[in-house]
Amino acid sequence: MQTVRIHGRGGQGVVTAAELLSIAAFADGRYAQAFPSFGSERMGAPVMAFCRIDERAIRTREAVTHPDVVIVQDPTLLHQVDVFGGLSAQGYVLINSTRSVEELGLDKFLNAFPDGHVCVVPASDIGVTHMQRPVANTPLLGAFAAMTGLVELASVQSAIRQRFPGALGEANAAASKDGYDHVIACLSQERSDSHHARAN
Amino acid sequence: MRAQIEGSQAVAEVVVLCRPEVIAAYPISPQTHIVERLSRMVKRGDAGSCQYLNVESEFAALSVLIGASAAGARTYTATTSQGLLFMAEAVYNAAGLGLPIVMTIANRAVGAPINIWNDHSDSMALRDAGWIQLYAETNQEAADLHIQAFRLAEELSCPVMVCMDGYILTHAYEPVDVPDQTAVDTFLPAFSPVQVLDPNAPISIGAMVGPEAFTEVKYLAHQQHLRALSLIPEMAGDFERQFHRLSGGLYAPYRMEDAEIAVIALGSVIGTIKDAVDELRLEGIAAGCVKIGCYRPFPSLQLRAALEGVSRVIVVEKDLAVGVGGIVSADVRMALQGSAVPVHTVIAGLGGRSISIASLKRMVIEARAERLNEPHFLDLHTTVIDAEQSRRREQRRAGPIAEQVLRAVKAIGAKAT
Amino acid sequence: MSTQRIKFYQTGTYTAGNRLLDEEARTVQSRMDRTNSLNSGHRACQGCGEALGARYAVDAAMRASHNRLIAINATGCLEVFSSPYPESAWRIPWMHSLFGNAPAVASGVAAALRAKGRGDVRVIAQGGDGATVDIGFGCLSGMFERNDDVLYLCYDNEAYMNTGIQRSGATPAFARTNTTQAVGEVPGNLPGTGKNVPRIAMAHGIPYVATASIADLHDLEKKVAIAMSLEGARYIHIHVPCPLGWGSDPAHTMNVARMAVESGLFPLFEARSGRVVERTRIRHKVSVERYLELQTRFKHLLDPRRNEAAIAAIQSIADENIAAYGLLG
């Protein structure tokens, strides 16, 4: 079983992201359980949503305290909320930001993770490009597919189209492809950098 | 059709398939997604001539259904927590009048202190009002129970509460197979009322009954309620034959064939308990669990039989009888009266606190070692308790408990980092 | 030969006027084919205004709906004296649920009938002032704002009578009840409190609101008939003296009701969609004392000493009604 925790603020589609992830996993023939951490409805308040993915039926309902993947949709949370709490040392991290890991002040912490497990994605910018709004969740779902391979991009896109009708769905699906592509590029850059580092 | 959908959505879709004629809706977290989706479906014409009323309170919601049901309509509403208590008078009224109303309870804690998260204090508060109470383990079961509930209610002329854990089930996305209309129509015939307000055959409903007849009226209601103990397994059997899956029933055992220790619970926590049981088994502990699917009427004989051969019972319940301890455990003890099997009361998950596999395993191990206090509050923050109790001993005007505890939790949390 | 139309005021069953009226103008209660919805044998007190009002109002509603009517009753005197198990005085489909939910229950019945395509069957809800003005107020307002197709009849005897005469939001200024006793600085019910539910009903903009009194039963029947000819939420507030609670002579219930109307304390009017469209002029105006002196619940204002300030305050309420509704114009 893999567990994903998504961090963001109310109004950023964090809950939707977890739901779409679970729908994508279902489309891939897996079992998935998605649920938010709840509070009163309030725009801008920190929220979390969770998704469990497994090959067999998921029975447990406990809170996710040790996620395998952490997605941070809003970088302003990075030094406000313990977004990485409980994250496995072999876990994955996706952060929505235009700054680098170093610029975010997280290099010491994140460089300890295995290669290919950490990516910063300019998801809000991708959202602006496709939807004219800084929508970060769908680009990050594409990025998730690329980084973890836990869901197929095609399934992410079909989940998106099912949720958002017409042009909006198409735009979000395209945005998720951009997120996917960004991570592919990021990972190959990383491989090439470390290859050079080893070579030197 | 099997799809990855939200629990609330599954329930709303299934309710519409049951062909309700009048739905009353008053919003309260965490039931809102159910009534919102129903509103959309009715307004779009997916529910035929079904009438959807936006009412002014939960008390009004159930009252509207009392009238509609008495006029021969199939009726539905959903509520939780404060809303259920606000309609308490009507809850007793509906049962006393024998009206087959079906109501979803999206289980949530009852304040004060105000809390919007899951526990069973709401349905437990009205467990003796005369409604049948069914508890769902998963969203699939929640959906299926509604279909069974309408048939059960109408056959017995008794209202039914379908309880599903607020947020944990209502707001969770998981696979649910929502049946098609033909399948539901086959299982659930049209409503044929036992009593109905009809100008062609006038009757008076709701008479005042004095000391000379009240006991008999209540006795008859009690007997009628007990009939559910045989009707529910029959219905679950019919359901399985038609839909090819197990849903409902009085109780469901898991790895009980050779269990030494049995954990009993209601609702979604059973899923977590099953995972804990599997892990305990791997560690050599013969644990099993029993889900109580029908809590009212209470399946005493059936539970006693299910616990045959067990040497220890732990009841994990999301409720608290203030000043006493357990509520479900009291019923379990009554069912086991005369037997020497120790029964532990574990109060867990109050106000939405997560119940972890690790804590459940620890609980079983402690119980086996006879180290569990009674009642045992799972994962109680004793430092916070001690701090608050000593603070209150020091000053008379100690302030509201809730606020002080919240501060203590933050203070102790801050100190720990 | 010229003809002169004579208006007969009291056109009940036994007055000469009724037999001289056109068929159509006669009261429902004078017809052989009336339903007798509230049958004799009920347990109301001698001289009960509510029993009288209910009998006239419900039979009028039955006539208007061609005997296809369902009645929902709140807890209270009417419900208690008409349905002692195992008997019932009701000859029509009737249900009693709770004290505070009659409007909601009636809304539910109306919804069920709508779902079943039974637009021919109509619904009335009835309750006393306690059930309507106080505990059922939320549900009443909900029924109004949804414009549910229900005619609500409030039988106002100005206190919780069934429970032993306690003050309600309809209790008039200075009236003695067991929770507003005639002691202390301000004896009886505190002036300046209370609700005017007919006006509140009007504020909801519902199709029809009317006040009526058993002092004019024909007028009450007429208003019920008008209400039944309309759809949506409708409200009739009926003044019904309670000899026991008011301390009046049970043989003079009609007169007590008449004095309330003729003094201006209980104005008779009709409103449509929030606007007053009709009112009944006072025939012979009387001072409020003619009304107060008939009831021991106001005795403390007259005996042993007259409470001039209180009497004047009550008179000014009556005068304001007369002015506001043009009752003498």
Q: How would you characterize this protein structure?
A:
The complex is a heterotrimer of chains A (200), B (417) and C (329). By secondary structure, chain A is of the alpha/beta class. Chain A contains six helices and six strands, in the order E-H-E-E-E-E-H-E-H-H-H-H. Chain A has one domain: Pyruvate-ferredoxin oxidoreductase, PFOR, domain III (Pyruvate-ferredoxin Oxidoreductase, domain 3), CATH 3.40.920. Chain B has three domains: 241 residues, Thiamin diphosphate (ThDP)-binding fold, Pyr/PP domains (Rossmann fold), CATH 3.40.50; 127 residues, Rossmann fold (3-Layer(aba) Sandwich); 35 residues, no CATH class. Chain B has 16 helices and 16 strands. In chain B, the strands form three sheets. Chain B has a seven-stranded mixed sheet with strand order 3-2-4-5-7-6-13, with helices on both faces. In chain B, helix 3 runs parallel beside helix 5. Chain B is globular, with a radius of gyration of 22 Å. Chain C is 35% helix and 13% strand. Chain C has twelve helices and eight strands. In chain C, helix 2 runs parallel beside helix 8 and helix 4 runs parallel beside helix 6. Classes of the chains: A alpha/beta (200), B alpha/beta (417), C alpha/beta (329). Chains in contact: A-B, B-C. At the A-B interface, helix 1 and strand 2 of A face strand 1, strand 8 and helix 11 of B. Strand 9 of chain B pairs parallel with strand 2 of chain C.
CATH topology heading of the largest domain in chain B: Rossmann fold
Rg of chain B computed from alpha carbons, rounded to a whole number of angstroms: 22 Å
* Proportion of beta-strand residues of chain B: 15-25%
Assembly form of the protein: heterotrimer
Mean pLDDT of chain A: 94
What is the CATH superfamily classification of chain A? Pyruvate-ferredoxin oxidoreductase, PFOR, domain III
Q: Given the structure, what is the number of helices of chain A?
A: 6
Q: What count of domains describes the coordinates of chain A?
A: 1
How many distinct domains of chain B?
3
Uncertain runs of chain A with pLDDT below 50, 5 residues or more? Answer: none
Q: Alpha-carbon distance between the termini of chain B?
A: 49 Å
N-to-C CA distance of chain A: 39 Å
Q: Architecture of the largest domain in chain B in CATH? A: 3-Layer(aba) Sandwich
